[in-house]
């Protein structure tokens, strides 16, 4: 299926939702003063949807694949930081939210991997 714009792509939609939820996580009382991790996780989370958008707008399959790999890497970076948060904060609400977000990041990563493979296997 071909999409008209990156906003139509389910992986982008899930990635932007993921970024929003990451920022919501830092509104929790236990994390309100955690500025460094918030900044780093926020940048990585935003990078997922931004790289999907940038690759899509480049309009060549090779460039799209390149940026989808960047997005996939940012999803992994986000998961790594969420695991660190779970280790650092023994708060039940934080624990529950990080588990959900880790699952969401993994889902986006899988979508990106499948999209990359479909692009790489597409005959030119």
Gist of the model:
The protein is mostly helical and 124 residues long. It has helices at residues 10-25, 35-58, 61-88, 92-121. It has one domain (6-121): 23S rRNA-intervening sequence (de novo design (two linked rop proteins)).
Q: In CATH's first tier, which class applies?
A: Mainly Alpha
CATH architecture designation: Up-down Bundle
CATH superfamily heading: 23S rRNA-intervening sequence
Radius of gyration using CA atoms only: 15 Å
What does this structure look like?
This protein has 124 residues and is mainly α. Helices cover 79% and strands 0% of the residues. The protein is elongated and about 50 Å long.
List the helices and strands and how they pair.
Blueprint: H1 10-25, H2 35-58, H3 61-88, H4 92-121
């Amino acid at each position: 299926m071909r999409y008209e714009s990156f906003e139509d792509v389910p992986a982008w939609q899930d990635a932007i939702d993921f970024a929003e939820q990451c920022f919501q996580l830092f509104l929790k009382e236990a994390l309100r003063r955690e500025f460094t991790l918030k900044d780093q996780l926020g940048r990585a989370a935003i990078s997922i949807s931004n790289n999907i958008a940038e690759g899509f707008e480049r309009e060549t399959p090779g460039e799209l694949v390149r940026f989808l790999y960047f997005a996939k890497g940012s999803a992994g970076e986000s998961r790594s930081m969420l695991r660190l948060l779970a280790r650092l904060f023994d708060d039940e609400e934080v624990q529950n939210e990080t588990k959900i977000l880790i699952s969401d990041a993994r889902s986006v990563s899988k979508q990106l991997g499948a999209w990359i493979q479909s692009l790489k296997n597409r005959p030119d």
